[in-house]
Design a protein that fits this description.
S-adenosylmethionine synthetase N-terminal domain-containing protein; single chain; mainly alpha; metal-binding; S-AdoMet_synthetase; 122 residues; two-stranded parallel ribbon; ATP binding; 35% helix; methionine adenosyltransferase activity; two-stranded antiparallel sheet; 4 helices
């Protein structure tokens, strides 16, 4: 079970709150929001700006009329080094015993069909 303070859960809650803010003002809004928290454990020197721009160019985002231009888009890179506890567990041969086995893929959608009150973040 992933706790509510887990970065994936926090990101989901932020995205949901942004969606709720739009829908509260415009019920027919079309919103696709992705919030990401990144942690890296690597000795590699990676040029994230160049990678993002190359991918955007390959996809076809080459002018503002298409929504963004790979040459002028604002790319913000904010990475935090992976904690030593997680790093040790991931590198360890006994991953399941140390508790780093919570990586997985989730499928689903946001809904307000529960009995709990929705928190407003806007």
């Amino acid at each position: 079970m992933i706790g509510e303070g887990h970065p994936d859960k926090v990101c989901d809650r932020i995205s949901d709150a942004i969606l709720d803010a739009h829908l509260s003002q415009d019920p027919s809004a079309k919103v696709a929001v992705e919030t990401v928290a990144s942690i890296v454990a690597s000795k590699a020197a990676v040029n994230y700006q160049n990678i993002v721009r190359r991918v955007l160019k390959d996809v076809g985002y080459d002018c503002c009329q298409k929504g963004m231009d790979y040459k002028t888009v604002n790319v913000m890179v904010c990475l935090k080094e992976q904690s030593s506890d997680i790093s040790q567990a991931v590198i360890s041969k006994t991953t399941l015993e140390t508790g780093a086995g919570d990586q997985g893929i989730m499928f689903g959608y946001a809904t307000d069909e529960n009995k709990e009150e929705k928190q407003q973040y806007f």
